[in-house]
Recover the amino acids of this structure.
């Protein structure tokens, strides 16, 4: 059974939160085929990006803060990446409550296979770079405002 798309101006379509949700789903879906060959999901890719950027092991708490993921969401991602041989998890010697996440040699090597992803996603989005930059800043501002409101 085919379901028609929502019409512009409908109650749902007029919601900013729906536009954000639909855009997020569309962009994440665009990543799927690019990451499938690497054996990564989009959230796993974000973890790997953070670790590649850092270049050294980091506490799970810092990784969760950087990705805005709670411990309960992040831990299963890390377990799957560890089973895949891409990351290591080990308790800190000076504080056994803290777990450090680092890259394996295989995890570091995987970064070389990701070079075309950003370009491909940019092409899929079809937006000029200046518009992408403006949109990113607007979304960061929106997220910060909502987080500040929710922290009250």
């Amino acid at each position: 059974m085919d379901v028609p798309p929502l019409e512009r101006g409908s109650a749902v379509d007029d919601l900013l939160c729906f536009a954000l949700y639909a855009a997020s789903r569309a962009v994440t879906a665009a990543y799927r085929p690019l990451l499938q060959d690497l054996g990564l999901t989009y959230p796993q890719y974000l973890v790997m990006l953070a670790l590649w950027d850092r270049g050294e092991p980091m506490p799970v708490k810092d990784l969760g803060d950087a990705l805005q993921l709670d411990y309960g969401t992040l831990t299963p991602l890390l377990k799957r990446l560890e089973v895949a041989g891409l990351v290591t998890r080990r308790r800190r010697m000076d504080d056994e409550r803290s777990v450090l996440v680092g890259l394996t040699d295989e995890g570091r090597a995987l970064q070389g296979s990701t070079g075309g992803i950003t370009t491909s996603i940019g092409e899929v989005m079809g937006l000029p770079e200046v518009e992408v930059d403006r949109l990113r800043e607007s979304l960061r501002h929106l997220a910060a405002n909502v987080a500040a409101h929710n922290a009250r």
